[in-house]
């Protein structure tokens, strides 16, 4: 009888991992509000810095779960895995996939900031829909797993979802400020306008930023798609005695590498800008929420990595699809509920196309 344990673990991992979406959304909410005090030409630069700080804090806290597991393993488990030639030769792939995924994390968090809270649930679905597609394709190509026709139909639906998300952004822009000194400033001025609801702290993003956030989300998903490959390479073919050790070491190395690109971005910014961002009390408070979500998400990532080591009858592409599908839907729902976001009809159609694509991936 075929065990469904890998799929159950992938489902649990996806649910816990979805808290990461909430954590990143919390961080950019604080960064966006802090940036209102900045001069208009500096808004995009400051949002980039706020996004880098958010994803760095998030990625760093996700390392805590595997770090605790490493301590529980003891030095013998670490050295046994590290000195194993079969696992050691996979390190370049694990590190490389972690670096690319870290760049995707920065782009995805910036896409949240540029969507300005008006459609971040949809941005999340676009990111993760492309991520699901890319991850399954890369794993299938690397491990020579044959994809079913339904998979290609799902890919088309993902593309349809991206197109619908972009077209939904082409609404009427808020009126530009008449006293702008340049075209750049007139484009960015609407970003400083508050939303109609006094209860909401989000801002209204100008059309060009909302469109750019969709493209950034797609690029982030494509970069994230290398993550499942790195984790699967790290645990593929492990023996029963080595599964736990290989899983922990792989996930620890992978997650540490995802912090490098955001950290590099933070260090390249002048110290005055860093102080200005971190001085905002609300931003620091919301970063605490990002850290909590990162801890929960780190547990989910560890579980999902372990699921790859148990794949057996189920292909790695299927496990990746189940995990990422649950992650995508759960994360988008939590963001929409917590931040009271309402999607337009076209946005709902785009989200529906992404959900249908994920279902088709699972059936395939």
Question: What keyword list fits this structure?
Answer:
mainly alpha; transmembrane; EmrE-like; 17 helices; single chain; 364 residues; transmembrane helix
Could you walk me through the main structural features you see in this protein, from its secondary elements to its overall organization?
Residues 168-199 are annotated as: Disordered. The chain crosses the membrane at residues 6-27, 48-71, 91-114, 121-143, 149-165, 285-308, 314-339, 346-363. Keywords: Membrane, Transmembrane, Transmembrane helix. This is EamA domain-containing protein. This protein has one domain (5-170, 201-363). Helix content is 76%, strand content 0%. It has 17 helices and no strands. The chain is globular and about 50 Å long. It has 364 residues and is mostly helical.
Which spans have pLDDT < 50 for at least 5 consecutive residues?
34-43, 168-206
| Distance between the ends | 20 Å
What's the number of domains? 1
Order of helices and strands: HHHHHHHHHHHHHHHHH
How many strands in all?
0
Give the percentage of residues in beta strands.
Answer: under 5%
Main structural class: mainly alpha
Instruction: Give the rounded overall mean pLDDT.
Output: 75
What is the general shape? globular
Number of helices: 17
Major sheet size, sense and barrel closure: none
Helical amount among residues, as a percent range?
Answer: over 70%
Radius of gyration: 20 Å
Layout of helices and strands:
Layout: H1 5-17, H2 19-34, H3 43-62, H4 64-82, H5 85-88, H6 91-115, H7 120-142, H8 149-167, H9 183-188, H10 207-224, H11 226-235, H12 243-258, H13 260-268, H14 271-279, H15 281-309, H16 316-338, H17 345-363
Protein name: EamA domain-containing protein
Region (Disordered): 168-199
InterPro entries: EmrE-like
